[in-house]
Amino acid sequence: MHQKPRLLRDIASLALTGLLTCSAFALEVGQPAPAFELPGQQGTVQLSAYKGKTVYLDFWASWCGPCKQSFPWMNDMQKKYGAKGLRVVGVNLDQKPEDAKAFLAATPAQFDIAFDSAGQAPKQYGVKGMPTSMLIGPDGKVLMVHQGFKAESRDELEAQIKQALHIKE
Q1: DSSP assignment letter at 48
Q2: CB within 8 Å of 96: residues ≥ 6 apart
């Protein structure tokens, strides 16, 4: 009886993974980050609005366990480095807006959230799994691509953010 919701979630996960892996390419370090314009919690979210900032762009979905773990860390990064030029932007890929809203009610985001139920941005970025994050420099070029999220990767990810922001400690 308990297997049915899990089975449905697994099927959804596989379907999205299959959709995302149809991408012809994966974005690489040094390439320009593709522009996007998506509806967000506070209005339209456009990558071009962050020109001159360092952007930690995170693709996530409500059914993604590691995504739930990454949100508190991304909140911390936004709070810690926002004044130094960092903008964390989460792009939700759920097809049903109510799934994203339920996730955000349980796991609030203190950073910008955009919604891409059609999955256009992850195709442009070559996203292959959830979560996938990218660090984009002030010049709009990709500095880092990271798949997944584990507690042990936090320090390395933060070090990359600090390097991008030219913070020395």
Answers
A1: G
A2: 117
pLDDT digits (tens, 9 = 90+) for 106-159: 999 999 999 999 999 999 999 999 999 999 999 999 999 999 999 999 999 999
Give the number of residues written for the chain.
169
Would you call 157 exposed, middle or buried from its count of C-beta atoms within 10 A (0-12, 13-18, 19+)?
buried
Q: Say if residues 161 and 81 touch (Cβ distance below 8 Å).
A: yes
Residue from 46, 47, 32, 67 nearest 147 by CA: 67
SS (H, E, C) 96-158: CHHHHHHHHHHCCCCCEEEECCCCHHHHHHCCCCCCEEEEECCCCEEEEEEECCCHHHHHHHH
Task: Report whether 96 contacts 65 (CB < 8 A).
Answer: no
